[in-house]
Write a structure and sequence with these properties.
The chain is α/β, with parallel strands linked by helices. The radius of gyration is 21 Å and the shape is globular. The chain has 2 domains: about 150 residues, Nucleotidyltransferase, domain 5, CATH 3.30.420; about 190 residues, Nucleotidyltransferase, domain 5 (2-Layer Sandwich). The strands form 2 sheets. It has an 8-stranded mixed sheet with strand order 5-4-3-2-1-6-8-7, sandwiched between helices.
Length: about 400
């Protein structure tokens, strides 16, 4: 049915996996699915296929027990095999894996082999919520699709343009020289994608635009984009730094972990667990579900209200800082699960920023219906956009560009 190259893109998060089968020539999505709630009592498995193949493809069970990423990727592999068996003429040419951390070595897409995989495995402690799942996906696909070329595309790639005076920390030089301690930044694929979509919407070359992009999901980061390139970002050496997140603390006095270790005697592993999995919104409210937190706040829950105040304050702090560092801002962009769906968070984040040129339209803010929606008031000097991110499509594009050279 098609002779065009087809790529399977795997995007593994801390408790979910999204996947798309994309035709490279025209970006047509032949199949897409997700597994949400990995490790919970019942995970949600959803999948949809291009209407050309819908009659031949049997839908999977919606809710099943999936204990870990390894099990999730096995299910995805089964989906792929069923699809190829039931859809004649489709052949898998490439597999692209989103990998959160490229460290100081990987600055572009790289074809996977054992040496590359071993290096990625050595970074697991830098992104404990994500890299184990990324690696599980790579290994599973190498076993089941051993004859298919596979590539890793790194979330840190987009941030390689950050200047040295911004990516360096004021720490002993041997920390940087010998241990690679510097700001790397994350969510780069999402920031890159929505920046390109903002340029299309504004009908201006990306290279001429200054943007502030906010990727707000269970993980959250802000990015200052100058002349189309990443100039600064809130996440740092690991995805732990920056904004308050679902399970992660965000910015924290570096002395606090040392103090807690001295006072409690907990190990470095326990401390890492608490900062990466037991902090953020979960620490204040007991949940990372922003919709639930908003509902509880509306019912008068003080902890939920406190969490929203903390969350929004940090957003506004980064927006203000990036407005100053960029000098001129051509648009503010919200994306990610919270950024795209939580109208109250968007409104509170922009509240009282009118003096700085940002005025939200409350009515438009509550009626998001398009992949790119403008939510700014006519009085706003700076456009405010909500853009649906598509990291999978960005991964496919980056690999296609890499293969051209």
């Amino acid at each position: 049915m098609t002779t065009q190259p087809v790529i399977l893109v795997l995007n593994s998060g801390s408790s979910s996996v999204k996947y798309k089968l994309i035709q490279l020539k025209d970006d047509a999505v032949l199949l897409e699915g997700s597994i949400q709630g990995i490790g919970e009592s019942l995970a949600k498995h959803s999948i949809s296929v291009d209407e050309r193949f819908a009659d031949n493809f049997t839908q999977p069970q919606a809710r099943i027990e999936i204990n870990d990423h390894q099990a999730a990727f096995q299910i995805i592999a089964d989906d792929m095999q069923r699809f190829f068996e039931q859809s004649s003429g489709i052949q898998l040419n490439l597999i692209g894996h989103r990998v959160v951390h490229g460290g100081a070595i990987f600055f572009a897409p790289v074809e996977l082999n054992q040496e590359v995989l071993t290096t990625i495995e050595s970074y697991q402690h830098l992104a404990p919520q994500h890299l184990p799942g990324n690696i599980a996906g790579i290994k599973t696909c190498q076993e089941l699709f051993s004859d298919v070329r596979q590539f890793a595309v790194f979330d840190t790639d987009f941030h390689q343009s950050i200047p040295e005076h911004i990516y360096r920390y004021a720490v002993p030089n041997n920390w940087y020289e010998n241990h690679g301690v510097r700001r790397y930044g994350f969510h780069g694929l999402s920031h890159q994608y929505v920046a390109q979509q903002a340029a299309c919407y504004l009908d201006k070359p990306l290279s001429e635009l200054n943007l502030i992009t906010l990727h707000l999901g269970n993980g959250a980061s802000a990015c200052a984009i100058k002349n189309g390139q990443s100039f600064d970002t809130s996440m740092g050496f690991t995805p732990l730094q920056g904004l308050m997140m679902g399970n992660r603390s965000g910015d924290l006095d570096a002395a606090v972990p040392l103090y807690i270790q001295e006072q409690t005697g907990i190990s470095a592993e326990q401390l890492e667990q608490q900062l990466n999995f037991e902090s953020g919104l979960v620490a204040i409210t007991g949940t990372h579900d922003m919709a639930e937190i908003q509902h509880r706040a509306e019912q008068g829950d003080k902890q939920a209200s406190l969490a929203i105040q903390m969350y929004v304050y940090q957003l506004r702090r980064y927006i203000g800082a990036y407005m100053i560092s960029l000098g001129r801002v051509d648009a503010l962009v919200f994306t990610g699960g919270i950024g795209e769906n939580a109208s109250m968070i968007r409104e509170l984040a922009c509240d009282e920023l009118g003096r700085y040129g940002l005025v939200i339209n409350s009515t438009e803010n509550k009626q998001i219906k398009k992949a790119t929606s403008a939510i700014h008031h006519v009085r706003s000097q700076i456009p405010i956009l909500v853009i649906q991110t598509n990291e999978e499509k960005q991964i496919a594009h980056n690999i296609a560009e890499y293969l051209k050279h």
